[in-house]
Design goal:
By secondary structure, this protein is an alpha+beta fold. The chain folds into two domains: 3-80 and 202-361, Zn peptidases (Aminopeptidase), CATH 3.40.630; 82-186, Peptidase M42, domain 2 (Elongation Factor Tu (Ef-tu), domain 3). It is built from nine helices and 19 strands. The protein has helices at residues 3-8, 13-24, 36-45, 114-117, 170-175, 203-222, 286-299, 316-322, 347-361; strands at residues 52-53, 59-63, 67-75, 82-88, 104-109, 121-125, 131-138, 159-163, 183-186, 191-192, 197-200, 228-234, 251-257, 260-261, 273-279, 282-283, 305-309, 328-336, 343-346. Strands 1, 2, 3, 12, 13, 14, 15, 16, 17 and 18 form a ten-stranded mixed sheet that branches. The chain has a six-stranded antiparallel sheet with strand order 5-4-9-6-7-8, with no helix packed on it. Strands 10-11-19 form a three-stranded antiparallel sheet. α2 crosses α6, α6 packs across α9 (347-361) and α7 crosses α9. Zinc ion (ZN) binds next to α6.
């Protein structure tokens, strides 16, 4: 089978959607991969592939290439934005919380948009293994109770985590196993619509993880091998900036798969895959980015891909650059609406992302 024919094979929208649902329904806030580790290992074991983990919790799957003299990395981060417990509202501290009520002070893990998260349900993953349900609540939580309920900012100084249960003081919370340093996962709130749109809090970056699983599925079904050895990487610290900062020896290219953007600067909608030419820290590698553009020209629907210069945004490939890794870096991924809130994309964007991933892995556009 030639390279073009497999890369043009239509990915399975149902497979991508089912995989995305499984991934988003498994908690994996920044720095917490306890639950998603066995899920990922099980997914790849189904293809006869072993998964390994480095010391900072990045997972790897190695795909043998037709040419093993080189190794490239394709990464998609497992972590989602979340929260970490920083303390208890015991009254009398700097925040001047009126009465101790057992609610928890939190700090964001990644760029939480608190306006989008008010009232959302969460799971507190305690250090002792307990999992406690909670809600993110504004201090002025009810329009019927507080005259300024609509006016106070939705931020860390005005929002707390409220346990869903009979918790009235710090001791009640501690009795459940909650301590400082407990990590909080936000409910994924996954919804699939008949017209192909998908809404969930964690499309970033599990849509891209699903596309990489889709790539493995396609290679498995066709028996095709990547052009060169390809290391799939799944970091757990992207949302705080350093997921891809460690690059294993032997890797000379790092291509991050991550969400792309909608807004005034972007010629995209939710059906698109975007090639990221630059982000908040500057441009990616010129030639490798052109390779991805060439791949998109050859395999993507003409009106379903674009080139982006992404502000207020970065990826694991840029983290590799910033840490001094000697690699060529580039990035691409599915367009996403309402990022870091209840995110929205269309299954078309996942299909195009898998197409582009497949084309790049098979070595299209390189010569
Ligand atoms: Zn991301």
């Amino acid at each position: 089978m030639d390279k073009l024919s497999i890369a043009s094979t239509a990915p399975s929208a149902d497979f991508l959607t089912d995989t995305l649902r499984r991934l988003v329904e498994c908690d994996s806030p920044v720095g917490y991969n306890v639950d998603i580790k066995p899920l990922m290992e099980g997914i790849f074991r189904g293809y006869g592939l072993d998964m390994t983990w480095d010391r900072k919790g990045t997972g790897y799957v190695r795909l043998e290439g037709r040419d093993s003299s080189r190794c490239v990395c394709m990464g998609a981060h497992l972590d989602t934005i979340g929260l970490i417990v920083r303390g208890f509202n015991t009254g009398g501290h700097a925040r001047d919380y009126p009465e101790p009520d057992g609610s928890l002070r939190v700090r964001q893990l990644g760029g939480m948009n608190y306006s989008s998260a008010e009232g959302c349900t969460c799971r507190i993953h305690c250090r002792n293994g307990n999992v406690v349900p909670a809600q993110l609540i504004c201090d002025k939580h009810s329009v019927h109770s507080f005259v300024d309920a609509r006016a106070v900012p939705r931020d860390e100084d005005h929002m707390s985590l409220s346990v869903i249960g009979d918790v009235h003081c710090m001791e009640d919370a501690k009795d459940l196993g909650i301590t400082q340093g407990a990590i909080v996962a936000v409910d994924p709130e996954f919804e699939l619509f008949d017209n192909g749109y998908i809404v969930s809090r964690h499309i970033d970056d599990k849509a891209a993880v699903a596309a990489l699983v889709g790539l493995v599925d396609q290679l498995s079904r066709t028996g095709e091998r990547p052009a060169v050895d390809t290391l799939l990487a799944f970091p757990i610290y992207e949302e705080i900036g350093h997921g891809g900062s460690y690059v294993p020896d032997g890797v000379d290219e790092y291509v991050a798969l991550d969400i792309t953007l909608l807004g005034p600067d972007y010629d995209a909608d939710e059906h698109h895959v975007g090639v990221i030419a630059a982000d908040a820290h500057g441009p990616y590698d010129w030639a490798l980015t052109n390779t991805l553009i060439s791949c998109a020209e050859q395999v993507c629907e003409p009106d379903r891909w674009d080139i982006q210069s992404c502000f207020h945004y970065s990826t694991d490939a840029m983290a590799a650059y910033k840490s001094g890794a000697d690699v060529y870096a580039a990035a691409f991924g599915p367009a996403c609406m309402n990022t870091h809130g209840r995110e929205r994309c269309h299954i078309d964007a996942l299909v195009e992302t898998e197409r582009l991933a497949c084309a790049y892995a098979l070595g299209m556009g390189r010569d």
